[in-house]
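Any chance you could type out some protein's one-letter sequence along with its backbone structure tokens so I can compare the two?
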Amino acid sequence: MKHYEEPSTFGYEEGRASKISLRRNGKTVFNFDRGMDIPPEDEETETALAILLKQYN
């Protein structure tokens, strides 16, 4: 994850995180790089993403 001090229009949901990548067993299950590349694959991925966003976005 790459995040900044201030929110941006390029951030996830216009927040502070501009790059987020989640991998499970070597497979990318979510990727956001200033825009949605790979949406969350499943509920576990959504939960992990929510935890990260609560702290960094």
Remarks:
- The first helix runs from residue 43 to 56.
- The mean pLDDT is 94.
- The CA atoms of residues 22 and 49 lie 8 Å apart.
